[in-house]
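For practice. Supply one:
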Amino acid sequence: MKNIFLRKLAIGLAASGAIHTADAVEFNLLSAFTSGSGNRAGSSEILSYTTDDNFTILSTVGDSAAGSFGVQILSLNGTGVLAEKGFADFSSVFGATANWTGVSSVAADPLGRGFGAVALIPGANTTTLGKVAFFDYRGSTANNARSLIVLDVGFHPDSVKFSADGTKLFVANEGEWKNEGVSTVNAPGSLSVIDLSSVTGLGNVSGLSNGNVADFDFQAVNLGAGVSLAGIRNHSVAALGTSGTFNSTVPDFNVLGGTGPGSDPNFYKGIEPEFIAQSGGKLYVTLQENNAVGVFDIATNKWEKIHKLGTIEQLIDASDQDGPGGIPEAKIDDVVKGLPMPDAIVTYTVGGTTYFVTANEGDARTDDRDSSRFGDVGGNDSMNNVLDASLPTTQTGDRASGALGRLNVSRIDGDTDGDGKIEEPVMFGSRSFSIWNADTGALVWDSGDSLLTNFETILLALDPLIFNSEQFNTGEIDRRSDNKGPEPEGLAIGEIDGRIYAFIGMERQNGLLAFDITDPTAPTFVDYINNGASGLVSPESMTFVSAADSPTGQALLLTGYELNNGGIGVYSVPEPGSAALLLGGVALLGLRRRRA
């Protein structure tokens, strides 16, 4: 809700010119690999890197117009410049171009055996199993014959990751909500585990078969002792009704996800794995739409925990029409609770304690029937029938367009007293990144904890002309304020000169942020860069390369971009010097704003 004190404090900080110095890393763009410099059309969203074969980068490509469906194989030279050296083509895997949807993720074997793995999504993603293809990235075979073997996995594979020891490949299968008008089936999300223990080199990858694949969804047989789906957010429950109809009562997930009277036997089908991180014998898997992180025990092949992430209160700009007369204007003056609903996840360990770090993007159902503007009072998507009587039924007060009325909020969250009505609005995503205790799931720190680390406060001061814009569009300031703001999505961490840094990509505003997270309880903001003018728009994934593994001799951040037919940014992240950490007025902060 509105908090005038916090608004004044935010404005004061943004105008104060407060400045201090610290040892800090700094982004520098070495090269932008776009369609004009050799990047294949069809996006380069997900990247993987290996030092093998003279520093190789693997990049996903899916362009139905060009019929390209596979992996672009690139070399990275000593000046940070990329060039194609091959293409692994899988355009015929599902029979025809019309039968496939996308190439979702790629990974390079960590042992340097010469092969990679890529996840392939069919068009009928809820009725046809997804596939993972293994391919030769060294070019030992002819360019269009790089495929080694293609295996079935779960429905809608979203990310792939090799185990640290190379003996397994893990696949997060999203089982994404059924596509209205295309499929009436709701497929279950799952984790596929592919046994690679028999693979000693490139020559015997082709000996793998579907018998090497085991799939673990969220049915009771795959849950560890004491693990339950009760209370987990589920946007695909039958309580949301049929297409075009919105729910009039907030579902009780404790009942629906349980095993007693009123439970939903298909509840498990609405759990959607998104992204995987490994620490020791555990996998930490974001269940984005469920606002949770699942913990999978590799030894027992069981989901041993499901951490419910709850809500995080944030100071944000909640309206795209909060200026005089309803015009766009940046006003960071609303305090709202958000569902983290993370996309990317990484892990690290400090002082014997393991943490997972999340980029809290947020995600509503594909048909948006779990989402409405808080101020909607008429029509099929009116919020009035799900709001508690304590909230106004008209577009006044907090429901006015200049307050929270324009904000997209959940229709199935925010019932604080269990009466089936919403007492407090809850937005999708928390416009932040968070650090959590991996064992307990407790929130340790969130970037919204301080105005000095709050994303929107930083971005308004550093890049006011594109604040909460739609993918680097300078004519659309404030456009995304009503819907997930800058939208953090990509995430990577890396160690430089003994310190741990987190790098976060803003899918909408388009910039990259760096934070020092060496102390997980007190991270600090370090740097920001935005290279939209170089054709690098909408960062999707990030890969950190240590100086020891880099052909340039400096640590690198490789970033895959989604729009403008895709692109790859190669950034150097040199060892810290005495760099200015700025958080202040536009004039001073402009010194640290660097856009190529």
Observations:
- The first helix runs from residue 4 to 16.
- The CA atoms of residues 113 and 201 lie 5 Å apart.
- The first strand starts at residue 19 and ends at 24.
- Residues 1-22, 578-596 have pLDDT under 50 and may be disordered.
